[in-house]
């Protein structure tokens, strides 16, 4: 049976975040936490593979204890196990340190429940927007890497090959590679179905295992948390709107306005009319 | 090098790391314009650092692109060619790039924030390892001695900007958004060095096979458009875009949209401008029925000339518009179409008179 690991992140719903106009800081209070939407679609794809080919689906997240809420949501949707990787020493991690810890957790999941054939990540998170953790994990685990996957066409279990469509800026690429593979998911990869009643009951009773630094046989403390993060945030600021001294174009009729606008020299210039 | 106060931490010696490396992306031997934009901003920073601007071109029979990279500002181009490198694949491309970085030790590496650029940069940064900043929209360097890359990017749905620093590792890496930075004018009189590097990876060692690539022919490339006529919620429905399309066609441009129009299904995501959509800087941008939320304006505020049409005289879009028209777009746009047609006809008439 395939063993699929899905990496998720609980994120603040960035659409709900506002800026306090008085001190230009983020207002995080009252902002709901959600499962990063691309991760949910990755989970949905994994659950579809489970249905079609048979698989064990393990969800992993690195985060603070409140992330249990998101893990339970994944259980309600049909995941077999959902692990919270949590330790104060992990705090402050950038994408490099995050991929290190998730790699440790995936290796441990492989020890517990069998070798991992596929890893799913969302194409990026809503709060970090980097899309770097997936390739980071693939690199550390020496997995084949397929990013921006919009459709899984087939898995050949005998040959251990997977064929997918990658949706890129300029077109669609049909591509095939070996298992084990890391896939980063677009929304198109699979619709997210609603939790079943039995899923919800299971989720309500489920207590996610918590893995800390002590849970791993070896942790390099130079590679986790703030210390393991090469990037730091320098300054932050609220972008000012670039204001221009605009000119209002007025006229009695729409025709007059149109004539005036098209008479503007710089408009004619930009249109290549001169 | 200054050490952090209160710690014994010694900054490593980075003096071997010099120069800015730009990964030049191509498909079917056509370079992506973001690559030239990266060379443009790379040149500015390289000048500040008095360091060379280096390009890397990988592909099958892409020597011409290496030459183009020089015309667009590169002092030195590394060229790696082979039939197995025709299409981008993570394994061979990342190995070649890694080997080059290890050998020529650039202090900064830049990639487009495209699917390919992000895929490649993510793999490389982990391998090295070093810090990588995603999707930057502002790039600058501190002058020597610090030579620090100031990689700034939007955060929290474009509501904030953050400068990301990578002090303890080299090279400093970033992906940069397409359409934000300006390319240098192509200058065929520029000279530079092209250095061939060998690809050691054979096809049999590459597990990933590209079955086919289906180019989206009808796909809009808003980043390339000279004129964009964009609509917002004020259009009231999908039909409004037909009207915009007509004007766009008369002016030789494309149409664009704000996110709410895409979210309600009036138009496909391909046309979305702003956060989670395209960043554009056309010569002329006409905003019709667009209020001017920051999530949209971040993607179009660098257009050369902005014309805003809105019923609401207080709409924020007027603050960034060079020409503002307060009125009903359903009257103004048709008038613009008629006037554009008239002028084109007059011009053609004039031209035919001249010929006879």
Summarize this, please?
The complex is a heterodimer of chains A (274) and B (356). With 274 residues, chain A is an alpha/beta fold.
What can you see in these coordinates?
The complex is a heterodimer of chains A (274) and B (356). In chain A, the strands form three sheets. In chain A, strands 11-10-9-12-8-1-6-7-13 form a nine-stranded mixed β-sheet, with helices on both faces. In chain A, strands 2-5 form a two-stranded antiparallel ribbon. In chain A, strands 3-4 form a two-stranded antiparallel sheet. Chain A has 274 residues and is of the alpha/beta class. In chain A, a hairpin with a 2-residue loop joins β10 and β11 (171-178). The N and C termini of chain A lie far apart (69 Å). In chain A, α2 (68-77) runs antiparallel to α5 and α3 (95-113) packs across α4. Chain A folds into two domains: 2-223, Rossmann fold (3-Layer(aba) Sandwich); 244-274, no CATH class. Chain A has helices at residues 37-53, 68-77, 95-113, 133-141, 197-205, 254-263, 265-271, and strands at residues 2-8, 10-12, 18-20, 25-27, 33-35, 55-62, 81-85, 118-122, 144-156, 161-168, 171-178, 181-185, 210-211, 231-237, 247-248. With 356 residues, chain B is an alpha/beta fold. Chain B folds into two domains: 20-205, 3-Layer(aba) Sandwich (Rossmann fold); 222-355, TPP-binding domain (Rossmann fold), CATH 3.40.50.1220. Chain B is built from eight helices and 18 strands. Chain B has helices at 33-49, 63-71, 90-104, 115-127, 239-250, 259-263, 294-297, 329-355, and strands spanning 20-24, 26-27, 30-31, 53-59, 76-81, 108-112, 132-136, 138-141, 149-155, 160-166, 172-176, 193-196, 209-215, 227-231, 254-257, 284-288, 305-310, 323-326. The longest helix of chain B is centred in the C-terminal third of the chain and has 27 residues, at 329-355. Chain B is globular and about 65 Å long. Chains A and B meet through α3, α4, β9, β10 and β11 of A and α4, β7, β9, β10 and β13 of B. β11 (171-178) of chain A pairs antiparallel with β13 of chain B, so a sheet runs across the interface.
């Amino acid at each position: 049976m395939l063993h699929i690991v899905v990496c998720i992140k609980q994120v603040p719903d960035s659409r709900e975040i506002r800026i306090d106009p008085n001190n230009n800081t983020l207002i995080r209070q009252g902002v709901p936490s959600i499962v990063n939407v691309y991760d949910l679609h990755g989970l949905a794809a994994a659950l579809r593979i489970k249905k079609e080919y048979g698989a064990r689906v393990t969800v992993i997240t690195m985060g603070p204890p409140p992330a249990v809420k998101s893990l339970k949501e994944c259980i309600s949707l049909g995941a077999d196990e959902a692990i919270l990787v949590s330790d104060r020493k992990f705090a402050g991690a950038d994408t490099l340190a995050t991929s290190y810890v998730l790699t440790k957790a995936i290796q441990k999941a492989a020890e517990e429940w069998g070798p991992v054939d596929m890893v799913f990540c969302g194409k990026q998170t809503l709060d970090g927007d980097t899309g770097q953790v997936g390739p980071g994990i693939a690199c550390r685990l020496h997995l084949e890497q397929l990013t921006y996957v919009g459709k899984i066409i087939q898995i050949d279990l005998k040959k251990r090959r997977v064929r997918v469509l990658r949706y890129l800026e300029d077109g669609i690429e049909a591509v095939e590679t070996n298992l084990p593979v890391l896939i980063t998911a677009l929304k198109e990869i699979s619709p997210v179905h609603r939790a079943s009643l039995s899923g919800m009951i299971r989720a309500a009773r489920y207590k996610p295992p918590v893995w800390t630094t002590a849970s791993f046989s070896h942790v390099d403390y130079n590679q986790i948390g703030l210390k393991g993060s090469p990037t730091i945030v320098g300054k932050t600021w609220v972008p000012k709107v670039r204001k221009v001294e605009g000119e209002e174009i007025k006229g009695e009729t729409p025709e007059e306005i149109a004539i005036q606008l098209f008479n503007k020299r710089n408009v004619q210039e930009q249109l290549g009319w001169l | 090098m200054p050490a952090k106060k209160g710690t014994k931490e010694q900054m490593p010696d980075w003096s071997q790391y010099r120069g800015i490396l730009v990964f030049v992306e191509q498909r079917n031997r056509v370079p992506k314009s973001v690559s030239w934009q990266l060379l443009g901003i790379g040149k500015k920073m390289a000048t500040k650092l008095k360091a060379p601007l280096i390009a890397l071109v990988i592909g099958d029979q892409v020597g011409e692109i290496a030459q183009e990279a020089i015309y667009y500002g590169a002092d030195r181009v590394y060229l790696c060619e082979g039939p197995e490198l025709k299409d981008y694949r993570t394994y061979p491309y990342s190995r070649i790039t890694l080997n080059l970085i290890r050998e020529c030790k650039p202090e900064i590496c830049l990639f487009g924030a495209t699917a390919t650029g992000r895929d490649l940069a993510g793999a490389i940064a982990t391998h090295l390892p070093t810090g990588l900043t995603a999707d930057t929209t502002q790039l600058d360097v501190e002058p020597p001695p610090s030579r620090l890359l100031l990689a700034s990017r939007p955060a929290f749905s474009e509501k904030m900007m953050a400068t990301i620093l990578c002090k303890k590792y080299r090279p400093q890496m970033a992906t940069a958004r397409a359409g934000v930075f300006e390319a240098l004018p192509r200058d065929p009189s520029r000279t530079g060095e092209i250095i061939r590097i060998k690809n050691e990876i054979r096809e049999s060692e590459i597990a990933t096979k590209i079955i086919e690539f289906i180019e989206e022919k009808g796909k809009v490339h808003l980043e390339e458009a000279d004129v964009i006529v964009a609509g917002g919620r004020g259009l009231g429905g999908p039909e409004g875009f037909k009207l915009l399309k007509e004007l766009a066609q008369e002016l030789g441009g494309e149409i664009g949209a704000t996110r709410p129009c895409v979210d309600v299904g009036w138009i496909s995501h391909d046309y979305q401008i702003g956060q989670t959509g395209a960043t554009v800087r056309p010569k002329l941008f006409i905003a019709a029925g667009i209020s001017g939320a920051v999530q949209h304006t971040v993607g179009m505020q660098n257009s050369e000339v902005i014309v805003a049409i809105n019923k609401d005289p207080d709409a924020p879009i007027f603050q960034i518009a060079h020409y503002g028209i307060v009125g009903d777009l359903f009257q103004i746009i048709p008038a613009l179409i008629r006037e554009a047609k008239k002028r084109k006809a007059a011009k053609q008439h004039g031209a035919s008179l001249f010929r006879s």
